[in-house]
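Newbie here. two chains, one complex. Structure please?
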Amino acid sequence: DAGVTQSPTHLIKTRGQHVTLRCSPISGHKSVSWYQQVLGQGPQFIFQYYEKEERGRGNFPDRFSARQFPNYSSELNVNALLLGDSALYLCASSLEQGLGYTFGSGTRLTVV
Amino acid sequence: EDKVVQSPLSLVVHEGDTVTLNCSYEVTNFRSLLWYKQEKKAPTFLFMLTSSGIEKKSGRLSSILDKKELFSILNITATQTGDSAVYLCAVGTNYGGSQGNLIFGKGTKLSVKP
């Protein structure tokens, strides 16, 4: 079985640009969460989606948005990129909210 | 403010040593405590603990939760170089309006020397 897949694996963007990151959950998993991990820190919660609805939002500016599609895949969008947005963006899926999470390998975003 | 604190932040040991990693937490709506191992990118799941005093074991790794004192420990016996990684502790809460999202500590970087 495929695990959680994220694309792209690496990305370099310029300040002010927009970026879209993609996540495909494990088959049958209905919940997708996004986390940002800055170097040397633990992952920080950005969004949770369950059954295509936003169910939780962390302390991130409105430049960050996300959505979940009918097939439960998800996109994370970041507008007006700042240097401080450089991080590893992790997607995690779970069968239901609050149960065990499986993480993808992440997208390494570098903003220059 | 909800927080998860791990100690030590880094640790260097030799193969065969036993290590204990610590995780303390202060959260409003505790649901579970999880341990992950992160080698390069994807954190990989080790344990989920919800009840106090019940040790979970997987090979050379074990973990226990104390909900009264609000901490957990992760033990690794007979360490091997393949155990070198960052070990992340996370608490599942209702943070951010969701159900069961994770608040992570900064991690403990374990280096095992041959």
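Moderator note: The radius of gyration of chain A is 13 Å. Chain A touches chain B at residues 3-4, 33, 35, 40-45, 48, 50, 55-59, 88, 90, 92, 94, 97-106, 108 (CB under 8 Å). Thread marked as resolved.
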